[in-house]
Give the backbone structure.
Amino acid sequence: MKTMQEVLKDWEAVIGLEVHCELTKLETKMFCGCKLEFGAEPNTHTCPVCLGLPGALPVPNRAAIESIVLAGLATNCDIEKHTMFYRKGYMYPDMAKNFQTTQGPKAFCMRGWLDLSMDGRGADERLFWKDLAEGEQSENMTRTADGYVAHVGITRIHMEEDAGKMVHLGGGEGRIAGATHSLVDYNRAGTPLMELVTEPDLRTPEEARQFMHKLRSIFLTLGISDCSMEEGSLRADGNISLRRRGTKEFGTKTEMKNINSFKALHDALAYEICRQAEVLEEGGVIRQETRHWDPSKKHTLVMRVKETADDYRMFPDPDLAPYDLTDEFIDGVRERLASIELPDQRTARFERDFGLSAYDARQLTEAAFAGDWFEAACAEAGADVDKLAKPLANLALNDISAYVNAHEGVDFADTPFTPVRGVALVRMLAADEISSKQAKEVFAAVIDEDKDPAAIVEERGMKQVSDTGAIEAVVDAVIAANPDEVARYREGNTKLIGFFVGQCMKEMRGQGNPKLINQLLAQKLS
Ligand SMILES: [Zn+2]
């Protein structure tokens, strides 16, 4: 198979996403008063409405509708005032009603958009943007100083309800194939679920990943969901087709279902680009089908050939009256949104107030809670914030992020590396009390031993010697002890500087300030 970069020279990938987000922050389900609780005893949060028993009447959850309108306004959607709930045929045991209540042609939120800032490695997958001049636009892409902005349309965000959960037992590794029996838990059935559908405006797997990152950070900021891809409260389906560069007509798309990590989304789309190109270049045709991404085997497999809309038998739900949103309601949500700082606004503030690059500022606001950690650390830095903001951002984005990413279930709020300790570490580094190599050691020790950086430096005798007098004495002694090397150095073999630095460091048991040693050696040897 060709690599994706080779394929994308001849083909353009057309990618759209369908994102499902459970409104986990609500108290109750979408159409009944059952409690929302992840991990409760199976079938303890059910009632006649969410089990679809005869005669039970649903009542829409006002708080859920407030949440979706909030999400719509935050993603630049128009809010549709007059909508209806529909029934969508769904014959599977995890939904006892045998239909899903969802919205029809008109959703609460229509015609929105998000702009993605693509730079650094994120921009590499899209070809040809470097041909544009800064500020120049081509289709949905605008060239920036170090990358491009991709304008991505959002078709709609509609309100629906989640299904229950099935557990397949007796072999088959938890999958239905090979299982001897299955259990069903209806606690999740009826959970308020938003479905966001994008326009087919994404062109690379990296843009799809960035879109999900951005959406997640917006929903987290709004406080409407915990957006956990592992627990399934945020899920993405990606659809993708290829077309020859320069053509406008869409190819046949395939859909990747229920992808549960950012990396899986990226890798599944990247694989599918290569697979489709191979089929098309060999004269084959792409079938419209749903495919399953297997992250361990790193390929996609056919799940089923796509249903058409007719298969769903959609019709207006006779139990639910048309839903009218009042201007007062929408204005109330707009007011609530005005009091929330969205990730893009926070990014701009980090750039402005702390002098960070756009890239760093965005990374901080998009990684879960990294921005909160950074802000708390900057507050702790007090008057030194101008000097320390950049090293604090580096600490958050490199060291702490690496630690958080490597430890499931740990986030910035509960690492031993608190903002106070972060400031203590960068202060010692800025004052040349420890070297950057020692700072890495201190960082690891703070995490392992849950102690303050100062205590670790003290215990391990790491304090870097920056006393010019003490260093000068060592430098003089080393020069006096190595007359041959001094002569060779003065004859032009300046590479020997490394030898002298090494001798001084050895003499000082690694605690001399390398910057000062280098300076003094250069002075005295010249
Ligand atoms: Zn219920």
The radius of gyration is 29 Å.
